[in-house]
Amino acid sequence: MEEIKKVASPSDHLANERTYLAWIRTSIGIMVFGFVVVKFSIFVRQVSLLLGKEHIIHPPKDSGPLGISFVILGTMAIILSYMRYQNAKKQLEMGIYQQSSFLIKVMTLLIFFVSLFLIIYLFQTM
Cα(65)–Cα(42) distance, rounded to whole angstroms? Predict the structure, then answer.
């Protein structure tokens, strides 16, 4: 018997787009968090210099790399989500959609490791 390919409906394509947009919102949120971490560290340094009391407020030096790692993570999420969107779109058009959890696994691992770094960072600054 020959396998009949299911033609994707417009709602399938729209669901793919909604998923993509959800990943984009998540990516932007992650990048904004990283930006805020870096800028807050700079703000704390500037306030301490303005007050002339460099030794009262000690901004942690690891906050820059921490914030940048969140921006990189958000950027990677955008790239991976676009790849996933295009792959799902192509599969829907061919009528052979195969669910893949690759992006979910990669992002879960990346966020997990950055979170571990954040936990260590927070313990060191207490």
Answer: 13
